[in-house]
Amino acid sequence: MLEQMREPSDEVLQIMKQLGSKTESERVAAEESIKKFGKEHIEEFLAALAQEQRKHKRSSQIFSCILLGLFSVTVISGLITHNWDSIMTTSGMLGLFGMSVGVTSAQKRITKELAQFQDIRTVGAFAEALEFGDPEIKRMAELKLIELLPRLQAADNSLLSGDQRQALYRAIVGSNADLTLTILKALEQVGDTTAVPHVKRIVGQHISKSANLKIRDAAQECLQKLEERAELELASHQLLRASSASAVPADTLLRPVIINTQTSSDELLRPSQADTH
User: Fold this and answer.
1) Closest CA to 117 of 46, 25, 26, 18
2) pTM value?
3) Could you tell me how far CA 10 lies from the centroid of its own chain?
4) Residue 237's pLDDT band (boundaries 50, 70, 90)?
5) Could you give the CA distance from residue 88 to residue 207 in angstroms, rounded to a whole number?
6) What is the average per-residue pLDDT within 85-98?
7) Of all residues in the chain, what percent are helix, strand and coil, respectively (each to 5)?
8) Radius of gyration of the chain (CA)
9) How far apart, in Å, are the Cα atoms of 209 and each of 169, 204, 214, 215?
10) What distances in angstroms separate CA 71 from CA 67, 74, 254, one per listed residue?
11) pLDDT, tens digit, for every residue of 113-122?
């Protein structure tokens, strides 16, 4: 869906920048601007949020490479000098640093502001917010997903990107049973083949608690719907392939026989000399 969204306007991008400001007055002004914009600009804000996430993801990948290099040097140095405390201390510091670059303040604030709109287009943003590492935002995202996911229909399949789906799959095995049940029910509508192994894992679990039995029953029902949809899609794909294979190329179609009615003058019948006397 994000690829199909219109590009965020300069004004929306400016609001995103203000949301990440260290000045409280700028952040408050940005939040007020979002309220004034209203639901008609949600797609722009989602596109701006996706843009921010892509940009920050690239930065995080660079940081991850640096962290891995620093950690490797520390481990090798610690092994040589037998300085185990140095290894443990550095590991903890690098872990905290890695978490700190996981998400920007602008991402957190725009996600919180999107919560004021009761719009199913925001489900993907809240799916990603589950993994922001912020307990308050995670709780908010869980509540919004429990509220919005039941409203999804099969036609809303494009509202979730691949990364957002993976976030939901990880949430299925989380501690929030209500969220797990809500996700499983929503996958009956917007799930695809990528959901099958995750739902199968729940179905195959050893269950002892009654609450978990309810989850497994929901997972079995969800799995049945997913497999039925996969079979229909496979049959449709095979039908299309067969139809394409049986199509006769235009240059092999039967053509009418063309009789050459023009005869060379040398081949025309002429009277013999006997006939001329």
Assistant:
1) 46
2) 0.69
3) 25
4) low
5) 38
6) 47
7) 75, 0, 25
8) 32
9) 21, 15, 9, 10
10) 6, 5, 73
11) 899 889 999 9
